[in-house]
């Protein structure tokens, strides 16, 4: 059995520093020293959850940043994701090697669209269950799954997914999927939380979001992150700018009024914007 005590995805771990697609670099033997410095900076500023993935090609840099940061790995929550579904166990072993660790806190199937059949999806999940049994991971889950995909793996699963990491923000609230998560005891984990101000502006939320942020003395980015956190949604965000990195952390310490959370939800629902996987959904599909 593992000597590691599983960490709960709560408290400061609810806000993850992402090393996702915006970081992607060419595959090479040379480490990306700039990325190492940024991740190290994130840890030194106070982030305690690092979100990475096989696909991002940043695992070696994340591992090196942890080593250089002075923050014990035991205090850091590490999320990884498998993309090579044809060799899940091998991909996991390589992830541990690149990170320079013997354990990750959360390991996810990166997406469901590799599967040509329900059996493919269920088989990949069974491999994650085997990895969980090894004691080298604290929890297993999924990413970019719809309700139907989750139902499929639950037909044969011994272990329920701990979370589903999905694109989610006020312009893509996915209310029905969130309700299904709650019913099944699955943690919702949002990526692209800042789309309303980064990729989908202008929009119906702009004016009220600015007013709410001004009232609390915070940025609109912090207001958006807090909107999710206050609903019990874990959030992955990122930046290469130290001031923004530090700013986003404020979301752990501020609190919006419940009526403000509701207002953001109401005006956010007036616009639909999906930034990822648009080829898998109809233009008006909010699921």
From TrEMBL:
InterPro entries: AKR, AKR3C2/3, Aldo/ket_reductase_CS, NAD(P)_OxRdtase_dom_sf, NADP_OxRdtase_dom. Transmembrane segments: none annotated. The record marks 81 as: Lowers pKa of active site Tyr. Keywords: NADP, Oxidoreductase. The active site is at residue 56. It catalyses: xylitol + NAD(+) = D-xylose + NADH + H(+); xylitol + NADP(+) = D-xylose + NADPH + H(+). Its EC number is 1.1.1.307. Substrate binds at residue 110. Belongs to the aldo/keto reductase family. This is D-xylose reductase [NAD(P)H]. It comes from Cladophialophora psammophila CBS 110553.
